[in-house]
Amino acid sequence: MSTVGWCPSTMSDQSICLSVYEFSTPEPSLTNMPPKTAQIRLVSSHPEVYEPCDDSFALVDALLADRAHLLKHRPSICMEIGCGSGYVITSLSLLLRESDVAPYYIATDINPHAARVTLQTLESHGCQAEVINTDIAFGLESRLHKSVDLIVVNPPYVPTPEEEVGSGGIAAAWAGGENGRKVIDRILPVADGLLSDKGWLYLLVLSANDPLELCLEMRKKGYASRIVLQRSTEEESLHIIKFWRDPEVLIEANECVEMRRREDGIVVDFSHFSPFSVWRNRIRDS
User: Where, if anywhere, are coiled coils annotated (predicted)?
Assistant: First the structure.
């Protein structure tokens, strides 16, 4: 049986009340021979929830292609931002069933109907997760700070008029504003705050979202990246990018930031000068 717990809102009037869904361990018969990914016939639906489509399948195929690395990665906390129908988070749970670490799964969506549909999809596959109705990870940043080992995101990426971004219902699943980047550019800093030192982020984007620029922006934060899967459909060209923290990239990023600050005249580093030479220059100038 499922249980639904409503978290009382203690924030401002504009904050979103978190809805947490948890349920009991499924019957053994449901877990004897799990499929590798979620079965479409068992995915729940709702008129206001985005159904699995080419982008959903591409993201799951990328996870499937990287499955051997995921099992070696041994993530303890896995999260999907924007879970929709629950197809991706359920598939991820099934893909990692052979892991010697039992990951804790969290899924979020701004659409309350999507939260309920995701719960139903998980249950129908004998999986479990904490499903939260919230905007990206609002209210979770402190609890999950630097502790999530794996984040998967199929964001709203379609270029649309700005006023469509964040609208209610199913439109929130695809409306991305100018260049389709409005929501993506909000998600990346949040993901950076949630990811652990060994954290991985799988992000699905369109060519129109400028994947190269996204990789360069994340590189400034110390992330290396690679395209795990690229797929073209009749309407769009999809890329699934994997990001991970890289110490060498972080050092390079810090050096670039320091160089830029010096060029802007914000920082003067006296560590390379003798204090006596600085003193002599002051006397000469006076």
Answer: none
143 domain-assigned: yes
Query: Within 10 A of 217 (CB to CB), how many other CB atoms are there?
Result: 14
CA 209 to chain CA centroid, nearest Å:
16
Q: What is the mean pLDDT of residues 170-175?
A: 81
Beta-strand runs (E) in the chain: 2-6, 19-23, 77-81, 104-109, 130-133, 148-153, 195-206, 223-232, 237-245
82 lies in a domain? yes
The answer to whether position 152 is within a domain reads: yes
Provide the residue range defining the domain that includes 79.
Answer: 40-263
Which residue type occupies 126?
A: G
The whole-number pLDDT of residue 5 equals: 35
Residue 170 maps to which CATH number? 3.40.50.150
Cβ-in-10-Å burial (0-12, 13-18, 19+) of 47 comes to exposed
Question: How many domains, in total, are found in the chain?
Answer: 1
Residue 283, amino acid: I
Task: Kindly give, in sequence order, each residue whose CB lies less than 8 Å from that of residue 157, ignoring residues fewer than 6 positions away.
Answer: 55, 174, 176, 180, 183, 184, 204, 205, 206, 208, 209
By CB atoms closer than 10 A (0-12, 13-18, 19+), residue 268 is exposed
Residue-wise pLDDT tens digits, 185-199: 999 999 999 999 999
Q: Rounded to the nearest 5°, which phi and psi values hold at 168? A: -75, 165
Residue 191 CB neighbours (<10 A): 23
Q: Is residue 48 part of a domain?
A: yes
What string of H, E and C letters represents the secondary structure of 187-236?
Answer: HHHHHHHHEEEEEEEEEEEEHHHCHHHHHHHHHHCCEEEEEEEEEECCCC
pLDDT > 70 in the chain, percent = 75
Q: pTM of the full predicted structure?
A: 0.79
